[in-house]
Amino acid sequence: MTTARAQEEPEVVEDVFDGLATGVEVEDEGGGGADVPIVRPWDPASIRVTTNQFSLRNILDMIDEGSLELAPDFQRGKVWKAEQKSRLVESVLLQIPLPAFYFAEDSDGAFRVVDGLQRLSTLHSFVRENAQGFRLKGMEYLNENNKSFSDLPVQWQRRIYNTQLVVNVIDPTTPPDVMYDIFKRINTGGTPLNAQEIRHCMSRARSREILKSMTAMDEFNTATNGMHGHIRMNDREMALRFAAFWLLGMDAYMARPAMDLFLERATRMLDDPEALSDTRVDELCAAFRSAMLNAHLVFEEHAFRKWPNGVTGRNPINRALFESWSIALAPYDSADLRSRRTDIVSAARSRMTSDIDYLDAITASTSDRRRVEYRFQAAAEDAKAGT
């Protein structure tokens, strides 16, 4: 342990979205993947994207029949205001071409929206949900305010249905890593999606349901002060990080130390019943429940947050602390931890106060293999305090 105290405590910066604090500390993953074995350049033959045109009616039918998935319970869709939604509809009525959409095709022929989710969700809500959708508001050029789809003249309805959308379809033979990189390249419009939001859009229902059930646990919400349903899906990412390290282990990360790649691999594992049986999923969820229960038992309201000596206020959740301490505490018996709680807290706070290497490991370049390894070793060591 590096015992020389830092001259100045590193500033804790809370992430903000849409003007609101998110409760999660900004993370600097840095260039931790710089020493990942080179798997690029991609083979051009493996990158298969075709361009097609679909009528909006066709697209909406595909959504209704389930052959085009809009990534259910995606929170970011709620960010659009009524005026933004209405102006999208107005653009369609004015026959202003919309930016191209991107779909990922599955091996079974079904599609998932990987770019254009908010636009398609908005149009589907307006046209097909009708009374449950929204009424036009704040339109700039057309006098159709306060109207639902069914209130529009027939010629307007027909124009909406006949609108042609340009869709780039990513072939199912495209490797997952390539597909993820394609998404990151095109993810530039509006407010760009973060890494977990991208994974959510590109994953299957099984992984989404597993992560959703993990973050819906009372123990998780107690330990994180109610993070379930986080608008940027930071709750799902934290659950996924636990799953990745619990299922794959540190050796797997060290072999290819890049957090995005590691979490993509874990997501694919959660999606595949052959790679991860239902019994193993139950074991994962039980371990996660134990980790959350134990974290709150030991650290109470400061669980997964920086809490050096002398600090009394509660900092935002730190994802590096979450992954390392949840894994460290998961195997322990609660009665054992309760008897040693004071010693564990003292060891952890002392490390957060005076161990500069540890502070670096949970603050900057958090994906660096040496820093990941150090913070996991430190949490495991401190969890044994008082034994």
UniProtKB/TrEMBL annotation:
Pfam families, sorted: GmrSD_N (PF03235)
InterPro entries from the entry?
GmrSD_N (IPR004919)
The GmrSD restriction endonucleases N-terminal domain covers which part of the protein?
A: 58-200
Protein name, as recorded: DUF262 domain-containing protein
- Protein species of origin: Streptomyces daliensis
State the taxonomy lineage.
Answer: Bacteria, Bacillati, Actinomycetota, Actinomycetes, Kitasatosporales
